[in-house]
Specification:
Layout lengths: L2 E10 L2 E11 L4 E5 L6 H9 L6 E6 L2 E2 L5 H7 L1 E4 L11 H6 L5 E2 L2 E2 L1 H15 L15 H14 L4 E5 L7 H16 L3 E5 L3 H7 L2 E6 L2 E7 L5 H9 L17 E9 L6 E6 L3 E5 L6 H9 L6 E6 L9 H7 L1 E4 L3 H5 L6 H6 L7 E2 L2 E2 L1 H14 L16 H14 L4 E5 L7 H16 L3 E5 L3 H7 L2 E6 L2 E2 L3 E2 L5 H8 L5
Parallel strand pairs: 3-10, 3-11, 6-9, 9-10, 15-21, 15-22, 17-20, 20-21
Antiparallel strand pairs: 1-2, 1-4, 4-5, 7-8, 11-12, 13-14, 13-16, 18-19, 22-23, 22-24
Length: about 500
């Protein structure tokens, strides 16, 4: 067995992060590591990478004891981690990044010729001639940068490769190229641990799986012999009969009208949202979905046309006025735009509408905290309390806080950009239920998502965007995923 972790436990103060967890991966195997946020996946991988030490348990690598004192020693022993966030020096060349920390030198002088040979041979393994050793990393796409990180692992003669949510920021094409590379590495005998929230993605790339729940082993086996329902049940500890809960609702009068709106020249479009309705925006990366939502909210300019919110004059406005009109926006980039990670949960929920808790210029702090706590309860935010720092929360709970802010604003038009990206299946179901409940109470929801099953599962209508243009929205039952992709790629009109 290439890698074997047995009975690994780890506590942080009174919090038991891992309890007797075991994981085994052989050479030539891709094992999916599956679990909700907070299940213990990251802690287990940090132990493997040498970032933290376990309290109990043993690890062997090719039958030899493995107890790295730090990440550098783990890499030297053949364990490579590729994290979700790219960890490269953007102003250095591809060659410099690949050899960073492993430079070859003689009498203090870097052996440039040896560097170039190693990097050239490594890049040939990637089979991506578009990645040239001399170009700066910042000029590469996110997908290409991820391949450069893998090249770094190959130069260190990695025997075990851990990929943590590697496709979260990739286009479909880049993701497929990554899958092909990972399969080539598997065929060369590497042991690969693949972490993803997308079960269909895990099925595409992995043969075996291990599920963690609450810091313990919940299930493992062959993916081909295990149903998706069984995996989800192991993840959440209960049957999840409806990933997309159906909340009865009635479609009402129009509330948001985009009339002759153009974000780019010759991209004039229109769209009308009604109360009680959930509308999805499908399209490829760069189609203009994010730009459209930001323009509606007043963050980006509208070249021509008007965004009209029912009950207010037909004119374009900035974010402050949109909030007063009842429009709420949740950015796809929650860490830099959607949340203030260093502030508390109650700050993040209430700062965009503090006037609701002020009296004669003074904040009613008790009232503010009570309302934040109630919204946390409503959205099942797992935290110690409203004063906890948002940066301490899991991705799913951070996203719930971002959505709680819109509820606190009393928004009745929700603009949600990739609302479930990078969060676990249990949190997704809770967010889908919240979306349905808000629509049932008369809100209009506009969702931009790259995940088509999400749009088909929660939306009443779907509109496709391509090159800044919105094609007319149609009832969801009239679409297939194939038709959506045809329109998104402009293969049909």
């Amino acid at each position: 067995m290439r890698l074997e972790m047995r009975d690994v436990s780890k506590s942080f103060g009174p919090t038991r992060a891992l309890e007797g967890v075991s994981l085994a991966v052989d050479g030539g195997e891709i094992r999916a590591l599956i679990g909700e946020n907070g299940a213990g996946k990251s802690t287990l991988m940090k132990i493997l990478s040498g970032a933290i030490r376990p309290d109990t348990g043993t690890i062997t690598l090719d039958g030899e004891p493995f107890a790295p004192s730090g990440p550098r020693q783990a890499r030297d022993r053949g364990v490579a981690m590729i994290y979700q966030e790219i960890a490269l020096a953007p102003d250095l060349t591809v060659e410099a990044n690949i050899m960073l920390g492993r430079e070859l030198s003689t009498y203090g002088l870097v052996r440039g010729r040896a560097h170039r040979r190693i990097v050239r041979e490594t890049l040939e393994l990637l089979d991506h001639p578009d990645i040239h050793p001399a170009i700066k990393v910042r000029s590469l796409s996110i997908g290409a940068q991820q391949l450069v990180e893998i090249a770094r692992a190959l130069t260190a003669n990695a025997r075990v490769l851990v990929l943590d949510e590697p496709t979260s920021s990739l286009t479909g094409r880049d993701a497929e190229r990554l899958f092909q590379l990972v399969e080539r590495l598997r065929d060369r005998g590497m042991a690969i641990v693949y972490i993803s929230h997308f079960l269909e993605e895990s099925r595409r790339i992995a043969q075996t799986f291990t599920v963690l729940r609450d810091g313990k082993n919940a299930a493992d086996g062959l993916l081909a012999q295990t149903s998706e329902e069984a995996i989800i049940a192991a993840m959440v500890g209960r049957d999840l009969n409806e990933l997309f809960p159906q909340v009865p609702r009635t479609i009402g009068e129009p509330i948001l009208d985009l009339r002759d709106v153009a974000l780019h020249p010759e991209s004039q479009s229109g769209l009308v949202l009604h109360r009680g309705e959930v509308v999805g925006l499908a399209g490829l990366v760069g189609a203009g979905r994010t730009s459209l939502l930001r323009a509606i909210y007043g963050l980006d300019p509208v070249r021509t046309g008007v965004v009209r919110v029912a009950g207010y004059p037909a004119r374009n406005a900035g974010p402050a006025e949109r909030i007063r009109q009842g429009v709420g926006f949740a950015s796809e980039d929650r860490k830099t735009e959607g949340l203030a990670l260093s502030r508390s949960i109650e700050d993040n929920i209430t700062l965009s509408a503090l006037d609701r808790h002020s009296q004669r210029g003074f904040l009613r702090l008790g009232q503010r905290r009570a309302e934040a706590a109630e919204l946390m309860r409503k959205l099942a935010v797992k935290a110690r309390g409203p004063r906890e720092r948002v940066g301490n929360l899991s991705g799913g709970n951070q996203q719930k806080v971002a959505l709680a802010r819109l509820l606190h604003q009393h928004a009745h038009v929700f603009l949600l950009d990739e609302p479930t990206r990078g969060i676990d299946v249990g949190s997704k179901a809770e967010i889908y239920r919240m979306i349905g409940e808000q629509a049932a109470q008369g809100a209009a929801i506009l969702i931009a998502s790259s995940y088509l099953p999400e749009l088909f599962g929660v939306c009443d209508r779907i509109a496709v965007m391509s090159r800044g243009r919105i094609f007319p929205a149609r009832p969801t039952h009239e679409w297939t995923e194939h038709k959506v992709m045809e329109l998104a790629t402009q293969l049909s009109s």
